[in-house]
């Protein structure tokens, strides 16, 4: 089946509604672009005021445009757009790009107009790009519905942008930089077609080898996750997310709430779906061009070949900063290089052939480093020298890389004036070229990470058999209107999902407290239970280390009296009696429901350190076992639990199991807005883990009686 | 007095020893450069094999070159260089640039040759640049002793490079990028003239407004610190340090040793001397051009003016990531903008004038944001739009900025093709132009940091009056040959510098232990004292929480017996008896002597966290009070000590005082190779701080009997 989005890039015929014969109008620029880049389909200007524009017959109305026409590009005042769309629908056109602004971005009236347009489109089974966008571009069909001046080179990169300006700026910048595009689309307000729709389209576009995107927000996060996880199995996606700064503080009632922002959700989504996250516009395309043109590396051992030490030092720093290593060249390679290169050359990695290095020296060193089994990728560096022609070096690098196409070869030719011709040669030879050596780190890291992602098996998270959603449902129903639940009320919820709790029971009197303590064994802890007290220790609602019946009795009475005096209005249900916690590591496990991505899970070191060091990691639920392990390993806490500096190794299996169960609980009950186990006590290996305290916050807008 | 380095940039006459008439030789390229960029002095080729080169009289010998000649550029085979230098000296030339390689960089023989050259130079009071360098360039005198093709634009940036290749690559890249240079020097092997010499020279060069440097190593770190601290009071220095990756592990016997690498020393030196540290080559010059052309900001509140939202979002992210804030525009500014701009424009910061923004809109918005007292700097963004001429916008930005020259104005014109003319306009109008919005963060942060540095008073660290260096000298002498000193031996050293210790005394028998314990008060701690035991807890050499005489007696005997059985060869002196430590924060204070910069001080959170989180900061001793406070505030530990989340505030005054005393100890006694107080217990405000454990390592090569 052909995608419904195909007409946006490869229509049989395109009509421009609002075409103008005035060269100072944007619509004139669009028409010019439509006929200037080799597009072979029909182009129909539509405008009742003209009869011919740019030598083309101009039609007064879209209904009168002859076949073939399967795409309408609309650039007329916003209030006129609904009628035009209606006419397109009647004419049988199933794809429209609304360039015009004046919709959602200008206020509520515009938003209504936009909604109206979408209704018309839906009625006619029509897909919409825009409104308020700069159109589409396909470097293979030659279609150009934008008013951007000029087009980039042809290649394998498709670019989806939620900002038309960023798209235009990038195209203007990259036109002659040796970065090849397959297609471009600007999304505008995304009334209909979203970044995820286009990722799906480019995933099967034969001309696209790498999908890049600039996004400011992803509305349907779960669908994005699902699609991106599939696509990245065979085609890389590189994305730049803008708006990483958190705007204002959110009202939160847990550590998780204060630490888990929107940015953490995006980052987690990218990691979990194999999407490569770029940090800057420049990085986005530096990474993409390498993925477009080069094979993936099998590992992180990089060889540097250079004609100068300084740039190689900068490249080495950047490799180390990005978790890559300088490959240790084999003795054979070093000896071969020693025998053939300048005797003063440095043949350990970085291979520094010194200023006089000739094109054949580059070819020789590249051949032998590529053949070295200790090398996963080669980064070649050239600084222009008076007596060596960079273009000839480029030519030899291209030839050598093509002869041994199994490992990636990248080039840094530092400069501009002296390396323009070399840039051309490298571009046509499909070797990515960078201006500065610092690119080595983030480009090769992205390639290595993506290669690793492709190797990873993607298991579907499965809810453990012994989880009891019916019981949780019952508990949630039973509690009535309360939104914030303390430890006492939350414990049975966790228990129903098989999450182990420290033993404990509710005592309503000092006598009951003693009975429970005798049953559990001393020493014990008392914790106040009250629907009106969330921060127990703040009100003196925790008594530790009670060693006998007398202590328990006294502590119970004393605590109740103390709190009753301090908070006369609070309903005091009683006290939880629990044994003192055994030895172990305190960690925090949390969940906050992200508006775009759903349940965002957090893991980190407990106690005061969680906020002091922000030593936390995030993933979107449900988690696979691999996700849970990665979450732990991403934090410093992970190193501690693994047995740092002679400390005992923690029971990671138990921790992972609890993370998985907690993530299923979050997925199964959308009424849970926030949930937190803090602390979870992780005991030494083989001894399990125990919830020491916990809470949940319910969403007031969710009918949690019917989750 | 004229600097002895002046002839390297402004000689009256220059001789090129080794000039060739063969255009394929480097020396021919140099001669061509010497006469191609407007240099007004005399140029003399020297070569016995030619009589005329490039129309200039060629002399067979430097001795025969007529006046004026005060600079020799030497490019002949290395073994011939000493004779040529000798001849230059006899001719009365006091400055020579040795371009030729074949010296220290090729091995011991070359190093001897280099040393010989330096001796000849010293004999003749001659200054040397090189050998193995690419020469010098002065954009104001027109002198060009390099073989680099082309020169950059003229401006206020001088560039010193320890890599000729990086220098050449940068010049090739920046030639037409609107970045103006005053001078360039490549340093090669630095036989004589170093980066610090040139910093001193450019500090008084009237054409240089910003000094930039690429360095791989700074040999005389203390001199660099001294010079850079002075220079940065009135002229900014921006540096890029390569080789940040630590090569191999060092043998270390303390936490400080394992955490305080060479890179930490460089970073500390830059911070303490007001040097701006760039992370990449591109950053180095993006920062420099802003400092060259713009006034310094008074704060960190930035206004963004843009014609598109996406790039402004990227700029905002980058500002936030670099500790800058989006200025809150005054109500007046917002109202004025609202009245005059496109009604759909966003007049809160970022000021988004939308795609149709005209040159006069930029001028208007820039005028009013610059006038707003809430704004410290303005970053203007333009994305090329079909109907607006970027060069005209540039022109208006230049005019507006010049009319209100007190706050910095920067520009990001995103693209290349459509903004080439605008780039020219901005360059001539002295407005720095960037291609991508992400530059906003690091450029403005560097400017704001530097402005703050200039405001800072630079006090000279003073040793507190009650420090007793004579006593430390006596103690060091008394200890004989031991290099690693444990707590017992180190305590009197710290005491002599007024650093407060937890009370304690040496017990040689269980009876003495009890006597000391009775005097100190229970509970107490026993710690083994042995010259052969460094890690006391590893051998069971610490006994905590001893509550009475019986416990002390038993613990002493038991500990001695246990250790004697385990380490029969160890000499057991006895045990330190100390009271149990009171409540407080455990921190670590350390010192490692860096080979280039001297005593490198470390501060961090104690316990297991120091290595888990690497939550440490570094400065070079001696410290000022400001340095010490900054060290503390740079770490997460600093937040903890300040009273994080309801924890008690720590006695920061006591901590600072101990840091200062410890830093003077390190400066006064070069025999101290490493020293560490770990933990130092910092008590709540007003209650002081106490050394709980400490050690020092002496330098085996230092005569520590005569420090």
Automatic annotation (TrEMBL), chains A, B:
It holds the Pfam family ATP-grasp_5. It comes from Thermanaerothrix solaris. InterPro entries: Acyl-CoA_Synth/Transferase, ATP-grasp, ATP_grasp_subdomain_1, CoA-bd, Ligase_CoA_dom, NAD(P)-bd_dom_sf, Succ_CoA_lig_flav_dom, Succinyl-CoA_synth-like. This is Acetate--CoA ligase family protein. It comes from the Bacteria. The keyword ATP-binding applies. One of its GO terms (molecular function) is ligase activity. Residues 491-527 form the ATP-grasp domain. The keyword Nucleotide-binding applies. Keywords: ATP-binding, Ligase, Nucleotide-binding. PROSITE patterns: ATP_GRASP (PS50975). SMART domains: CoA_binding (SM00881).
